[in-house]
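job 3f2a | input accepted
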Amino acid sequence: MSGLARRLLVLGALLLLPLTLGGCFLNVFQTGETLPPGHFSWLLGLGGQFIASPSQWAPQLHLRYGVAPDIDLGVSSGLLITPQSGQITPLGLVADVRRQLHHRPDFTLGLGLGALSFSSLLSDISLYLSQPFGVLTPYAAYRASLTLSTAAGLGVIQQLAAGVAIENPNRTPIFLEISWREGQILLGFAARF
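job 3f2a | predicted structure (193 res):
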């Protein structure tokens, strides 16, 4: 299979996957940098609301693939677990395309557009800003998601996130993140491979 055919197949799969399930994920776990063409990464994370009662945990999987210089595609999924009740809710799948808009030694700026899903998330737009300092890359992100539910109708959910990606000798970045989403404080930890 040629490189172009493989890229088109991956792109098609990433764009069709969200149509099977809908939902949202709780954490951003992304800096402004995109993957180089042909590179693949996956991230395992645990995020959630630990301060309020009942607490909720969200194990997450984020997949990314570089399709062109400064452009990558991603798919994210996870589960929402409420330990007190034992309830486990699938969060579905969300796909996005991310474009690195600015990359200089002083900072990186990226823009992400989320894909359509049939449950409650219609689309989202994200803005990422990061600043590398040696092995530390602090980042900030803003995400606005357009949602539709039978109970509330059309709405917008906003999320602000701040975190740090820490490079280690194994070249496996570790992400520590805190974010605010609709009045909730969310914490997260992840590793990207």
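job 3f2a | The CA atoms of residues 20 and 118 lie 8 Å apart.
job 3f2a | closed
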